[in-house]
Design a protein that fits this description.
Number of strands: 13
Radius of gyration: 21 Å
Order of helices and strands: HHEHEEHEHHHHEHHEHEEHEHEEHHEE
Low-confidence stretches: none
Strand content: 15-25%
Structural class: alpha/beta
Helix content: 25-40%
Mean pLDDT: 95
Shape: globular
Distance between the termini: 10 Å
Length: 394
């Protein structure tokens, strides 16, 4: 069993390594003009900026990343901000980015990665940071996929949905993008600062109403969405995808021995995803990528990867499986508001948890997996290409 757990971790690590931001940016720099300003945003911002500064030493550079990934970088001004809920430090970073874009003396190189949506809050119109934080908290507990969440976020921001381009004009913008969005819709990654919006204010309102959130929104947000400002044509930009979930799954396949890959990315509610994985997993090694959602019904701690791992353990027991291991983890090393990346579970996991059903009902997968000693702890990885999964069955 220990050998199977070690194998699952080795395969997962190969997927994370394939999303190394430094290498991804380094390989793409020949495709962009020499910049007058570098702006790196997201969980992978530090390593992406480091690669760019090796090539373009001395160019002004701003880095905005989450607290866990924030480290000093020579030649760059580094901002640490809140994720997944925006905070005052993120708002200050957003204003610094807006000012730098206005002062840019040449082409702008934007380095974008997942997490940028929460890390760079620039409230639009009369909205406040408190308004945006309230909306974000509602979105995170509603079970919406990342595209729908970012559709809403774009309509509340001065930088998202192409707003970055407006502030950079008349300078040209080239963006190297590391995708945490399944399907790699560039307008959804970090809420698309250098890409056109996913939808309109009306579309955002429909998403919120469909999720039953409209009446819970701050009044200022409802007014903002019902009376959107006129939108001018966006300046053009060059957007280049440099890393993705699919590329990481391919790397896991290369690191495994004769693995089967689930035919589609694993998405949707974690309960449905656990059943789908167990329905399709074959003897030997099964691999997948994706990004699930969780509807919060309790006040426990955890995240989508931890809850999915726990639900897979429950599904496997119901099917009478023996001699198996499953690793489900976030490539960024952070699952929800915890220090875990996900879970590494097997046939013995549930035996070590006093009340796994009660903890699951309270969305307390972190406490359940901690009790079993089956949390996946990787520390922050410096990258973010959504989630990766490994199942090994004898």
């Amino acid at each position: 069993m220990d050998n199977m757990r070690a194998m699952a971790r080795r395969i997962f690590d190969a997927g994370v390594q394939a999303a190394d931001p430094y290498s991804a940016v380094e390989a793409a720099l020949d495709a962009v003009p020499a910049p007058g300003l570098i702006v790196a945003i997201g969980k992978a911002a530090g390593l992406m900026a480091k690669a760019a500064l090796v090539r373009f030493s001395g160019v002004p550079c701003l880095v905005v990343t989450n607290y866990e990934n924030a480290t000093p970088l020579e030649g760059a001004q580094v901002f640490a901000a809140g994720h997944p809920v925006p905070d005052e430090n993120g708002a200050a970073a957003a204003q610094a980015v807006i000012s730098a874009l206005a002062d840019a003396s040449g082409p702008v190189l934007a380095l974008m990665s997942g997490g940028g949506s929460a890390l760079l809050p620039a409230p639009a119109g009369d909205l406040t940071l408190a308004d945006k934080a309230a909306v974000n908290a509602l979105l995170l507990g509603a079970g919406l996929d990342i595209t729908k969440m970012n559709l809403v976020r774009q309509q509340l921001s001065a930088l998202k949905g192409g707003g970055f381009l407006r502030h950079a004009a008349p300078q040209s913008v080239s963006a190297l993008i590391l995708s945490d969005v399944i399907g790699d819709d560039l307008s959804a990654i970090a809420s698309g600062p250098t890409v056109g919006p996913i939808g309109t204010a009306e579309d955002a309102a429909e998403v919120l109403k469909g999720a039953g959130l409209w009446d819970q929104l701050p009044e200022t947000v409802r007014v903002h969405l019902m009376h959107p400002a006129p939108v001018a044509r966006l300046p053009d930009a060059t957007n280049i995808l440099v890393g993705s979930n699919a590329k990481s799954v391919a790397a896991m396949v290369a690191a495994a021995d004769d693995a089967f890959v689930l035919p589609d990315p694993v998405e949707g509610d974690v309960a449905d995803a656990a059943r789908l994985i167990c329905d399709q997993a074959r003897p030997g090694i099964t691999l997948w990528g994706g990004e699930t959602t969780v509807v919060l019904r309790g006040d426990g701690r955890g995240g989508r990867n931890q809850e999915l791992a726990l639900r897979i353990a429950i599904e496997a027991r119901a099917r009478g499986w023996t001699d198996w291991v499953c690793l489900q983890g976030g490539s960024d090393g952070r699952d929800g508001p915890t220090d875990a990346a996900g879970g590494l579970v097997d046939q013995h996991t549930l035996d070590k948890i006093d009340d796994f059903a009660g903890l699951l009902a309270n969305n307390d997968s972190y406490a359940a997996l901690a009790q079993a000693g089956d949390l996946l702890i990787t520390d922050a990885t410096g990258t973010n290409v959504a989630d990766l999964g490994v199942m090994i069955r004898r």
